[in-house]
Write a structure and sequence with these properties.
There is one protein chain. It is built from four helices and four strands, in the order αβββααβα. By secondary structure, it is α+β, with helices and mostly antiparallel strands. The protein has a single domain, classed as Nucleotidyltransferase, domain 5 (2-Layer Sandwich). A four-stranded mixed beta sheet has the order 3-2-1-4, with helices on one face. Helix 3 runs parallel beside helix 4. It is globular, with a radius of gyration of 14 Å.
Length: 122
């Protein structure tokens, strides 16, 4: 198996393991983080109804103009603040954090810190 496929398989296994333990409800939806090499995305999801309550990403027109690059910790913090602000507007104050199989480090941690600074608790 080539290196890239092995890394993708490992990420998929970690994500499945995390998702087996983390589930969002109406009372505490799930803050799901997706990170790529160029951008970062975040959604607040109610898994019971399957609805996305709030979302933000580094490709949003609102954020894209102020960000130099979507692959930095500063961009992740801005996305976290945006998703936190939008979740608060939707009436969500508490979430469960789903790191998507990634380590809680770097951009994932920056996004979480941005969401906390916007008022979300987890």
């Amino acid at each position: 198996m080539d290196k890239l496929k092995a890394k993708q398989a490992a990420l998929s296994r970690r994500h499945r393991r995390v998702r087996g333990k983390v589930s969002g409800t109406t009372a505490r939806p799930r803050l799901c983080v997706t990170r790529t090499n160029l951008h970062i995305y975040a959604q607040v999801i109610d898994d019971v109804t399957g609805a996305t309550l709030a979302a933000a990403s580094s490709v949003d027109t609102e954020l894209k103009g102020s960000l130099k690059n979507g692959a930095t910790a500063e961009a992740a913090k801005a996305v976290g603040e945006a998703v936190g602000r939008r979740a608060m507007e939707a009436g969500v104050t508490e979430v469960v954090f789903d790191r998507g199989g990634r380590l809680y480090h770097g951009r994932v941690k920056a996004l979480a810190d941005g969401a906390r600074s916007a008022g979300l608790t987890f």
